[in-house]
Amino acid sequence: MTRAHPWSYHEAIRYLSARAGYDRGFVANPFGDEGAGLERTRHLLALVGNPHQQYPVVHIAGTKGKGSTAAFIATIAHAAGYRTGLYTSPHLHTFRERFQLDHQPLAPDVFATLLQELASANEHLAAAHPDLGEATAFELTTALAFLAFARADVDIAVIEVGLGGRLDATNVVLPTVAAITRIGFDHMHILGNTLDAIAREKAGIIKPGRPVVSAPQAPEAAAVIIATAAQQNALLWLGDRDWHVRGTPEAFTYVGPGGQLEGLRSGLLGQHQVENAGVAITIAHSLSQQGIDVPDTAIRHGVAAVRWPGRLEVVQERPTIVLDAAHNRESAQALATALCTHFQWTHLTAIIGLARDKDLLAFLTPLLPLCTRLIAVPTHSPRIRAPEEIVEVARQLRPHVDAMTAPSVAAALALAREQAGVDDLIVATGSLTVVAEAREALGLASADPDERALLG
After folding, report:
1. 3-state helix, strand, coil in the chain (%, to 5)
2. pLDDT surpassing 80 at residue 233
């Protein structure tokens, strides 16, 4: 059936959609069948020639900043002259954004061709191993990334973990270097309720004898990473112990295994991005130590040139409009700090939509004191929380805040812009779907309605 005719892009998306859901979705819960997902992914990749073994891999886990860190190191590698693959999740406007070759999303026809090949392999997998069954949507897309990068002859691939690390489908790789960004509380119903429990899942990407770079961590998380690295005989470069950054995104200094770099500038706003850049720079030095030369000029250029839409993205001035995909307590605090650091305003309107599985109270706590007005919105995501619930909790936290709902992100933006003065600030946040719909409403991008309808 999968080889009857060449698939169109929408047929490929439809195939994925049929294998997706909340728990077995595009970033799947790997704990439901404890390890079977990794086995399925290995078998699936073996059927198409083990493409993940054909190039060096940087494998990145963490709670905060792993996508930004992946963007930093991919841009650095590209600046060093390497053909670079980047696999991240989720996406903003099109599913193909998850698979990038030298900063360009995978072409629709290439996506469809490769997924059709994997669908055929998936049929063979299910027939040969009925105990394992078919691969999930996320396992298939992970395999698609590896296959696309092999067919494109990349020099290096940067792979972001989907969820956790230890049992994530991406953890089939033997990385040239692994990295763990700052660990915090997210996906607690899956990964655990304590930092050390969450850290054990993230540290599951550390492989025997393979170097690992870590952001500075809370003591409980650092202890787990240090112990795991020692057990695996893996060289560990731990932030604030083995490497350091100081300064602001506009001008910072890095000190670490490759020496000292001064006068660095980040292409991404926010003090937390200085730390993410530090992780990426340490990764670059680790690659150089292993024969993949990344000169300081490429590091300097890559850190400054990186772009990662929807992360403290300024899309308009007078009034200023900022889009940020903060979605949990730590990222909301980072957003609040960045707003106070980088912007001044007379009135701040926050447009917020948050998924039901996120801690609404913890998310609102650092942001509400900054707000004159809050507009709660739905999005196209079936997992988004009812706007009325956001308004109710906001009023409990801050009874006098001007809190209301709007029927859509576009409507909220129109209202906020109509009422804003030139010195005011509008922030759209809470999820990537809020950011995506804001960018689309502002004419910065467009979505494929058929794709969005299939993906839900």
Report:
1. 45, 15, 40
2. yes
What does the DSSP assignment read for 231-284?
HTT--EEEBTTTBEEEEETTEEEEEETTEEEEEE--SS-SHHHHHHHHHHHHHH
If phi > 0 it is left, if psi is from -120 to 50 it is alpha, else beta; for residue 169 that is alpha
DSSP one-letter string for 178-207: EEE----S-SHHHH-SSHHHHHHHHGGG--
CATH number corresponding to 313-455 = 3.90.190.20
pLDDT tens by residue, 242-255: 999 999 999 999 99
Q: Which residues, 6+ apart, have CB-to-CB distance to 249 below 8 Å?
A: 265, 266, 268, 269, 270, 271, 273, 274
DSSP per-residue letters across 302-348: HHHH---TTSSEEEETTTEEEE----SHHHHHHHHHHHHHH---S-E
Q: Per-residue pLDDT for 434 more than 70? A: yes
**What's the pLDDT score for residue 24?**
38
Say yes or no to pLDDT of 100 above 50.
yes
* Separation between Cα atoms, residue 320 and residue 315, nearest integer Å: 8
21 vs 29: CA distance, rounded Å: 10
**What whole-number distance in Å separates Cα of residue 204 and Cα of residue 195?**
14
- What phi-psi label fits residue 115: left (phi over 0), alpha (psi between -120 and 50 degrees) or beta? alpha
Compute the CA torsion angle 19, 24, 30, 34 (nearest 10 deg). Answer: -80
Structure confidence at residue 3 (pLDDT): 55
Which residue shows structure tokens 């706590």? 365
β pairing state of 425-429 and 251-256: unpaired
Q: Which two tokens stand for residue 429?
A: 């946040």
Q: Where are the domains of the chain?
A: 9-305, 313-455
Give burial (CB, 10 Å; 0-12/13-18/19+) of 359: middle
Residues in the chain, total: 456
Confidence of residue 258 (pLDDT cuts 50, 70, 90): confident
Decide if 20 contacts 95 (C-beta within 8 A): no
Summarised one tens digit per residue, pLDDT across range 18-55 is 988 644 345 555 555 666 889 999 999 999 999 999 99
Burial status of residue 62 (CB atoms within 10 A of its CB: 0-12, 13-18, 19 or more): buried
CATH superfamily ID and name for 9-305 = Mur-like, catalytic domain (3.40.1190.10)
Q: Tell me which of 145-159, 187-201, 213-227, 331-345 is least confident.
A: 187-201
